[in-house]
Amino acid sequence: MHANLLIALFAFLGAAAAGLLGACVLLLIRRRSLALHLGVVAAVAVTAMLAGTLAVAQAMFLSGHDLKVVTTVVAMAAVVSLATALLLGRWVAARSRALTLAARSFGDGGDFTSPAGPATAELAALSRELEATSAKLAESRERERALESSRRELVAWISHDLRTPLAGLRAMSEALEDGVAADPGRYLKQIRTEVERLNDMVGDLFELSRIHAGTLALSPSRISLYDLVGDALAGADPLAREHGVRLVGDRVEPLPVEVDGREMSRVLGNLLVNAIRRTPADGTVAIAAERSPDGVVVSVTDACGGIPEEDLPRVFDTGWRGTHARTPPAGAGLGLAIVRGIVEAHQGRATVRNIPGGCRFEVTLPVAEA
Fold first, then answer.
1. pTM over the 0.70 mark
2. DSSP 3-state assignment of 349?
3. How far apart are the first and last CA of the chain?
4. Average pLDDT of the residues in 151-161
5. CB 242 within 8 A of CB 215
6. Where is the Histidine kinase domain (predicted)?
C-alpha cells in the first residue's frame, strides 16, 4: 500500500511539473492560433504522462531496457497525439476564418450566409446567432430606409403646404396694406382661415414630435366608449354636413376603457375627418365599438373605394397621403401617424383593411380593469 502511494506521488509531481510548464506556455501564446493551442495541450498531456512515468521509473530502479521501451511507447503516443491535435486545430481554424469572412459581409451591408461544410457545435451555434442577427439588421435597415423616405416625403409635403397659405397671406396683406382690396372683410376672414390652417399643421407637428421623442404624457381615466364616440361624432358633424356625408354611430357598446380622454378624442377625430374627406358626397361613414377577444375595438368605416394593396402597409407612416393628387386641405399626412402613436402609447394597436367599397380603420384598446 505504501509503495502504491509513493508511485502515485511521484507520478503526480512529474505530471504537475509538465502541466505548470504547459500553462505558462499557453499564457505566452494566448493570442496565437487555436491550432497552436491544441498542439500545446496535446504536448502537455504526453509530457505529463512521460514525466510521471520517468519519475516512477527512477524510483522503481527500472532497467535501461525497460525504460527505453516505456520512452518509445510514450514517444509514439506523442507523435499521434500531436498530429491529431494539429489536424483538428487547422480544421477549426479554417472554419473560424470562413466564419469571419462570412460575418464581414453583413457588416458591410450584405446578408450573412453560413459557410458550407460541417462545424463544431459551438461554431454551428455561432453561425445560427449570426444568421438571426443578420436578419434583424436587414429588417432594421429596411425600417430605416422607410423612415428616411417618409421623412423626406413629409418635408416635401410640409414645405408645399406651408408655402401655399403663406403666399396667399402675403398677397392679401399687401393688398390690404396698399388699400386695393375690393372687400377687406372677406380678405380678413380668409386670412384668419389660413392662419387656423397653419396653426393646425404646427399643432400636428408638435404632437408628432412628442410622440417620436417619447414625451407624450398620458392622463388615463375610466371613460365609457359611448361618451367618447358621441363627442367625436358631434365634433365631426359640421364637416360631414359640409361634404354631404352621413355619419352613423348606432353600433357603439357602452364599454369602459382606461384612456386619456383628450388624446383618444383626437384619435377618433382624426379617423373621422380622414374618412369624411375621402368619402364622396351622399356616402356614409360609420363608427362602431365592440368587445373582442383582444380587447375593445373601435372601427371607422368609409366609402373611399379602397386603398391600393401596396399602400396599406404605409398608411400610418409619417407623411403618407396616398395619391399625389390630394389637395393641401387634406392635411400634411400627419393625422394617421398621430393616431398610431397615441394608440400605441395606450398599449393598443391601429390597423386598416379594405372592405367592399371602402376601407375600415380599427383601433384595439385594452379593456379597463374592473
1. no
2. strand
3. 79
4. 71
5. no
6. 157-369
